[in-house]
Amino acid sequence: MSDPGYAIAAVVVTAAVTWALRALPFAALAPLRASGTVQYLSTRMPAGVMLILVVYCLRDLPLTEPRALAPVIALAVTVGLHLWRRNALLSILGGTTVHVILASTVFAT
Amino acid sequence: MGLAFVPIGLAFGALVTQSGIDWWWAPLSAALIYAGSFEFLLIGMVAAAVPLASIAVTAFMVNVRHVFYALSYPLHRVQGRLGKAYGTFALSDEAYALTSGEKARSWPGPRIIGLQLLLHLYWVGGATAGALLGSLIPEGVTGLDFALTALFTVLAVEAVLDLRGDLPTPLLALLSALIARLLFPGELLLAAFALFTLGLLARHLVTHRRPGRV
Q1: Coiled-coil intervals in this record (chain A) (predicted)?
Q2: How much is the pLDDT for B213?
Q3: Rounded distance between C-alpha atoms, residue B43 and residue B12, angstroms
Q4: Which residues have a Cβ under 8 Å from the Cβ of A40 and sit 6 or more positions away?
Q5: Is A69 near chain B, with CB under 8 Å?
Q6: Contacting A residues, span 78-107, partner chain B, CB-CB under 8 Å
Q7: Which of A47, B37, B54, B209 is positioned for an S-S bond with B159, CB 3.0–4.6 A?
Q8: Residue A33, pLDDT above cutoff 70
Q9: How many other CB atoms are there within 10 angstroms of residue B138's CB atom?
Q10: Measured distance CA(B207)–CA(B214) in Å, rounded
Q11: Cβ of A76 under 8 Å from any chain B Cβ?
């Protein structure tokens, strides 16, 4: 059990950083809109950031062990479902269900 | 898209209690931070008692993408100080995607705020239910944490499709992530974001200096 004071502080710090990132740019809107570099970054960053976060989630993948197959298969199911139906709920539920089933049965440790 | 918040919220709440954190932390985090992806990362950091400064820096890097939302979120249509404050506070990835899109061109302020409120409630409700029901998950059922990977995967697929054939960007991101994984495994996110941003800036500089292109 973690210390409640620390757990609350972690939430408050994160909330402050996140809200600042969401609200402050509106004050600087005009120069932001004019900057070609910002436009360049803003169109390309979302895809890159999301891909990096996917790699981050899979950072501890034990590549030499068979149980690494569970997330790899679930990832393929998620991408496949999404390219097929473009329905976020379906892709997330499908991928997660496959992962829970595989990780709890065939690849259970 | 909004309803996807419920199963992910359930998974989030369940993971909070599975990680040994008190159940009330899930609704608190969901209501006050309301940045789902980072909240998942935060579970691990809080469980490991990571220093607050590291949490702040990581929150900045993961959520810095929100800076760009100011470019197209229709804040000018939202009336009043309170409305504007909430509009920016609840500017999540999904809220941004829905309010800045083609269909939302004609939406008045109250409709925008109403949509954001609904998404926020879905998230807090899902997280609370997950935290309270999490203990009912039988021993031996694992792998629920994949919900976060699946969420990022879906957002990545959408964002990559939006690039319309700009392959160097996703390749640069994957390369940055792999280099960071190999060289700075302890600070993977920070290193990968830094490498990726530097790579993009370098590419921007090079393509702009090339003659014939402005």
Answers
A1: none
A2: 46
A3: 9
A4: B200, B204
A5: no
A6: 78-79, 82-83, 88-89, 91-93, 95-96, 99-104
A7: A47
A8: no
A9: 6
A10: 8
A11: no
Closest CA to B90 of B172, B82, B160, A61: B82
Paired tokens of B168: 């160097």
Q: Which residue has the higher pLDDT, B141 or B72?
A: B141
Q: Is B35 exposed, middle or buried (0-12, 13-18, 19+ CB in 10 A)?
A: buried
Please state the rounded mean pLDDT for residues A60-76: 91
- What is the distance between the alpha carbons of residues A4 and A9, in angstroms, rounded to a whole number? 8
Structure token pair of residue B127: 């997280």
Closest CA to A21 of B93, B116, B201, B68: B68
8 Å CB contact between A95 and A81? yes
Cβ-proximal residues to B121 (8 Å cutoff; 6+ apart), any chain: none
**pLDDT tens by residue, B51-77:** 999 899 889 988 887 887 777 788 888
